């Protein structure tokens, strides 16, 4: 019989798959001798067995659970349900990947009408015992019996009011007993049964509920967001209770071994005296910062600091630790790798290398490239005066502007309408997750740095301010006030999650800069990575940004973007509308110096690094006005001014647009097909590039332009275009008297090019995989239609694992890339290969490119830092198999 239940001392930290993250950590902490309340873990496999058995706990799981319970009872010298010496346990979920607040927890299980009396006697504290019992009824009723907490809260509130109390600590033991009777009546009313008194019945109902919570709505949404597979299941941890609410010598808290917002190496967290577990994270009472524990309980603080150091050394990772002090004795309830902002992740990784805890390679693997986007976002421009409306806790850095909303559903629906919103709430709960996802930022008036809102926002890289008590929120009228100032639903505010400041209106933002630690980490990444990183940049400004962000060249300069400039578009239109060659040449002659100027700027910005320039790609009608709008104009003029010259001009334009109209522009007259039919366009572009190269050579900057021909499907297309480019180069060299080197290559972006890459390589000095078009043509999807119509449903229904336009489809499109590289290199072993589709900035696709032996990836400028790190991670991850990778590529 398989083992489905493990006592804490039977497991260890490497058993995450089976015990879940929490269970594995509890086992590991027990193993290294930390003060962990004893318990056991029911495995994730048992959860799957539960679902296989149509949501019933199989007998073998039940038997093993009872056996483990007996061991726990022996060890604690207490018994579940024993009126004289009762064992009380917590029952918590724990999946393989951390899902904070997403699943359910039950505390104080084992409480009933008899054990509460025993507890009162044993602790000599009846008030505490009855308070614990009522907490248990409330939690159990909510999680297991599915009765809304609201009824219990309301009842408690009424009792408080009736007795003239303003807070819970004022309730006496007798008051709590009254509350318990009321709570039981609520249970009876909703379930038509008494509150279950048998602790074993309570236990198995709780286990059922935790298993069920794996599939509650918020857990499903969280998994989808974080790409956690549904089949993993959750473990259940059953642990003997310790109490932080036994008086002023007790307490409970959460602490990070380093600041999760900035990464600073200081103990960071908060606690509440005389409180129980969930009180700190629930955000209902605003807790004390951990530093004050030093004064309140110096002994406990010192012991805790030592344990934090020990845990960090042990896991070689920043830890997020939950602790409880029961009558002066410290217990560690949980540890896990702490979630952190990108800024903190970088600082921690770099400092842990300096402190000798990590080596550089491990440090590089510790930062998730996706997170870096956070740092490359704008921040508030200090130059502008900002009138601060209120200040709360800086819970998650970043700046955001948006309309105020007070409700998660509203946040979602406004954001679906394209609005930017900031969710403002007293506090958030896991049920608000969809609203948090939809918002630019979150603000809460209650709760601390480890409240739900703070933890979730940091995990998502969203700005968040918590505990902003100056905000008086009225959910009913959808308003908040700060002193005299009233802010209504829909008003615009700006927040700075790094300072905790809230401002009215929109405030200008500025571009990000890379911190010293970030630069250092990227420098380490550059030392490790064996694959180049270039940028897709179409103008000198983007080229400069790319250079600043560490791009080793430009992998794609889309020259059509230079045509879109407002001043140039009329000339481009003249070129397209020309009736004959001479007219077209006249327009092209005007365009040439403009393009040349851009190329000079780009070459200069890249300071001699390689620059790949792609000749014109899109169909010509993209440069002309919209057909339908023009039709309306023409119709209007026919009525208002039928004799006008303007009407004639518009009619001519319409005729040309109709001629250029295509049934399927994506597969129409574009790419090199334009160069084949209008060679003068490509010739002008090639000359502009070469004149720019000649000009830079005069300035002593050596550039070696890489001219790229788009959308080649047959080698003969490339053969023609190659000749055209060579001849243009010859003309420029002759005219200027300057010699320069250049290469000519092609995009591989339609399947036939990949399939015949051996022939195409005869005419190409390099290949660049244009995986945007290659994905479109391999799937037979037009991207705009697919993303607008059915792709989302495909992903939701798991027809496709991911959006193939964002994450490279390695099994399909990837096979063509692999074939392209292999066939191309069979013809030319030194053929340079790269990728310039959007996948060049996505971490798993970068890993694939590395394995395929590509020379570089190219992505948008702001993704360059991410790509440098992802490239290093790919190299480190596959280091052992490197030899093999390159020989098979
Ligand atoms: C591509 O197709 O991958 C590519 C980079 O070209 P574009 O996106 O401009 O079509
Ligand atoms: Mg393309």
Key terms for this structure?
889 residues, alpha/beta, Dna Ligase, domain 1, D-amino Acid Aminotransferase, Chain A, domain 1, Glucose Oxidase, domain 1, 5 domains, eight-stranded parallel barrel, disordered C terminus, binds phosphoenolpyruvate, binds magnesium ion
Question: Overview of this structure, please?
Answer:
With 889 residues, the chain is α/β, with parallel strands linked by helices. The chain folds into 5 domains: 5-241, 2-Layer Sandwich (Dna Ligase, domain 1); 242-340, D-amino Acid Aminotransferase, Chain A, domain 1 (2-Layer Sandwich), CATH 3.30.470.20; 385-507, 3-Layer(bba) Sandwich (Glucose Oxidase, domain 1); 533-619 and 662-884, TIM Barrel; 621-661, no CATH class. It is 47% helix and 17% strand. The protein has 36 helices and 33 strands. It has an 8-stranded mixed sheet. A hairpin with a 2-residue loop joins strand 11 (319-326) and strand 12 (329-337). Helix 13 (342-354) runs antiparallel to helix 14, helix 18 packs across helix 35 and helix 22 packs parallel to helix 26 (679-698). The longest helix has 26 residues, at 581-606. It binds phosphoenolpyruvate and magnesium ion. The site of phosphoenolpyruvate has 10 residues, from strand 27 and helix 30.
Give a nutshell description of this structure.
The chain has 889 residues and is α/β, with parallel strands linked by helices.
Low-confidence stretches: 883-889
Oligomer: single chain
What name does CATH use for the topology of the largest domain?
A: TIM Barrel
Roughly how much helix do the residues carry, as a percent range? 40-55%
Mean pLDDT: 91
Main sheet record: 8 strands, mixed
Query: Can you tell me the CATH class of the largest domain?
Result: Alpha Beta
CATH-scheme architecture of the largest domain: Alpha-Beta Barrel
Shape: elongated
Name the CATH superfamily assignment of the largest domain: Phosphoenolpyruvate-binding domains
* Terminal CA distance: 46 Å
Task: Give the strand line-up of the largest sheet.
Answer: 14-24-23-16-17-18-19-15
Range of strand content: 15-25%
Give me the number of helical elements.
36
* Number of structurally distinct domains: 5
């Amino acid at each position: 019989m398989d083992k489905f239940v493990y006592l804490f001392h039977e497991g260890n930290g490497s058993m995450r798959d089976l015990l879940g993250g929490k269970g594995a950590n509890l086992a590991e902490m027990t193993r290294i001798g930390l003060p962990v309340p004893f318990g056991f873990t029911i495995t994730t496999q048992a959860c799957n067995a539960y679902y296989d058995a149509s949501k019933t706990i199989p007998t073998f799981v039940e038997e093993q659970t009872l056996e483990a319970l007996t061991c726990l009872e022996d060890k604690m010298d207490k018994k579940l349900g024993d009126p004289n010496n009762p064992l009380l346990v917590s029952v918590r979920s724990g999946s393989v990947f951390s899902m904070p607040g997403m699943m359910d927890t039950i505390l104080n299980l084992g409480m009933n009408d008899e054990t509460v009396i025993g507890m009162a006697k044993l602790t000599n504290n009846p008030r505490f015992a009855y308070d614990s019992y009522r907490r248990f009824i409330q939690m159990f009723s909510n999680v297991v019996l599915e009765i809304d907490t609201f009824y219990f809260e309301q009842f408690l509130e009424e009792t408080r009011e009736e007795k003239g109390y303003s807070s819970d600590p004022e309730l006496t033991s007798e008051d709590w007993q009254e509350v318990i009777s009321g709570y039981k009546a609520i249970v009876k009313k909703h379930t038509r049964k008494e509150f279950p008194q048998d602790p074993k019945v309570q236990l198995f109902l709780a286990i059922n509920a935790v298993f069920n919570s794996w599939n509650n709505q918020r857990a499903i949404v969280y998994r989808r967001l974080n790409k956690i597979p549904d089949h993993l299941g959750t473990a259940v941890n059953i642990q003997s209770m310790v109490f932080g609410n036994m008086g002023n010598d007790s307490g409970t808290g959460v602490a990070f071994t380093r600041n999760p917002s900035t990464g600073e190496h200081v103990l960071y967290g908060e606690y509440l005296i005389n409180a129980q577990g969930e009180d700190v994270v629930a955000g209902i009472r605003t807790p004390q910062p951990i530093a004050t524990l030093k004064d309140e309980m110096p002994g406990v603080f010192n012991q805790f600091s030592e344990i934090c150091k020990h845990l960090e050394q042990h896991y070689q990772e920043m830890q997020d630790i939950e602790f409880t002090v029961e009558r002066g004795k410290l217990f560690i309830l949980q540890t896990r790798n702490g979630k952190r902002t990108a800024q903190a992740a970088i600082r921690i990784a770099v400092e842990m290398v300096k402190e000798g805890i990590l080596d550089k390679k491990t440090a590089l693997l510790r930062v998730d490239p996706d997170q870096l986007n956070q740092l490359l976002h704008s921040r508030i421009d200090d130059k502008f005066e900002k009138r601060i409306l209120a200040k709360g806790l800086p819970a998650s850095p970043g700046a955001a502007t948006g309309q105020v909303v007070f409700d998660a559903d509203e946040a979602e629906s406004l954001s679906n309408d394209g609005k930017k919103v900031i969710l403002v709430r007293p506090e958030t709960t896991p049920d608000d997750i969809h609203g948090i996802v939809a918002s630019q930022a979150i603000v809460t008036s209650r709760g601390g740095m480890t409240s739900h809102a703070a933890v979730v926002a940091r995990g998502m890289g969203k700005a968040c301010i918590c505990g902003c008590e100056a905000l008086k929120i009225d959910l009913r009228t959808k308003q908040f006030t700060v002193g005299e100032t009233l802010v209504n639903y829909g008003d615009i505010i700006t927040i700075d999650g790094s300072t905790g400041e809230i401002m009215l209106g929109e405030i200008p933002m500025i571009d990000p800069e890379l911190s010293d630690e970030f630069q250092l980490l990227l420098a380490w990444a550059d030392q490790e990575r064996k694959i180049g990183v270039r940028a897709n940049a179409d103008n000198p400004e983007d080229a400069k940004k790319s250079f600043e962000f560490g791009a080793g060249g430009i992998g794609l300069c889309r020259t059509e973007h230079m045509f879109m400039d407002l001043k140039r578009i009329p000339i481009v239109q003249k070129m397209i509308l020309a009736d004959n060659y001479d007219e077209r040449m006249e327009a092209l002659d005007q365009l040439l110096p403009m393009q040349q100027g851009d190329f000079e700027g780009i070459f200069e910005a890249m300071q001699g690094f390689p620059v790949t320039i792609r000749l014109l790609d899109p169909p010509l009608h993209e440069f002309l006005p919209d057909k339908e709008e023009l039709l309306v104009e023409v119709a209007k003029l026919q009525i208002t001014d039928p004799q006008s010259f303007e009407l004639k001009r518009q009619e001519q334009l319409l005729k040309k647009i109709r001629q250029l109209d295509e049934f399927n522009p994506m597969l129409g007259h574009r790419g090199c097909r334009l160069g084949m039919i209008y060679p003068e366009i490509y010739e002008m572009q090639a000359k502009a590039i070469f004149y720019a190269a000649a000009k830079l050579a005069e300035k002593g900057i050596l550039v070696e332009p890489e001219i790229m021909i788009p959308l080649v499907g047959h080698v003969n297309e490339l053969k023609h275009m190659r000749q055209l480019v060579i001849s243009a180069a010859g003309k420029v060299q002759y005219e200027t008297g300057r010699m320069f080197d250049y290469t000519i290559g092609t995009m591989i972006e339609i399947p036939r090019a990949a399939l015949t890459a051996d022939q195409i390589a005869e005419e190409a000095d390099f290949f660049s995989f244009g995986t945007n078009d290659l994905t479109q043509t391999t799937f037979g999807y037009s991207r705009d239609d697919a993303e607008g119509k059915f792709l989302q449903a495909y992903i939701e229904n798991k027809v496709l694992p991911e959006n193939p336009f964002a994450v490279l489809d390695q099994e399909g499109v990837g096979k063509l890339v692999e074939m392209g590289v292999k066939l191309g290199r069979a013809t030319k072993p030194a053929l340079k290969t790269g990728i310039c589709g959007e996948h060049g900035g996505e971490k798993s696709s970068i890993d694939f490119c590395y394995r395929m032996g590509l020379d570089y990836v190219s992505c948008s400028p702001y993704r360059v830092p991410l790509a440098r790190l992802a490239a290093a991670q790919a190299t480190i991850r596959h280091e052992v198999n490197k030899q093999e990778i390159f020989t098979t590529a």
